[in-house]
Amino acid sequence: MGLPSCWGWEEPQPEGGRATHEEEAKKAFSTMEEGERAPRPQEEQWQGYSRRREDMDSQQTEDYKELKDVMASASRHMKRLESALGGGNWATVRDSAKGLEDLIGRRCVNSYVKAHREVPQDFVQMSQRFNDAVLKLLVAERQQDAPLATSQFQLMQEGCERCHQKYRKERPASGG
Predict the structure, then answer these.
(1) What angle do CA 136, 138, 139 make, to 5 degrees?
(2) What is the DSSP letter of 45?
(3) Which CATH number do you get for residue 89?
(4) Can you tell me the distance from the alpha carbon of 62 to that of 65, in angstroms, rounded to the nearest whole number?
(5) 117-121: which pairs have CB atoms within 8 A and are 24 or more residues apart?
(6) What is the pTM of this model?
(7) Domain containing 57: what range?
């Protein structure tokens, strides 16, 4: 419904003049195949929501898989680091600590954020404490200070255990 033409404004008209309601309805239904019924606006909205929900569920499943893969790699690096510390293999200590810095310090946190959409402040603080321990471990590695390296490794292990106790949840198989 437009303003009266006496106000100096007229609704734009389609080519060939204004289409009637019946013509607009015929045009809308002409694209449908025989036997198909036109979806109601609510159905279109629900179908769009349903597709978005499926896409979100699929993405969340991928995010959980990524998080699980990151954690598996981190576990291997922790075992390697523990063995290297016990044997005084400083090159392996450095490589494993740098791997953990990337895996836990960056990728784990990013994967957790993507998978959960909300991150508690406590999770962020645990991540920062873990990163601090990794950096101190790298300093200890440079100085070849076994007691300092061992103490920082123990802090890292304790941080992993606390974080897992509080935040590790198995992904339900049903995706729900």
Answers:
(1) 65
(2) H
(3) 1.20.120.10
(4) 5
(5) 120/167
(6) 0.61
(7) 51-167
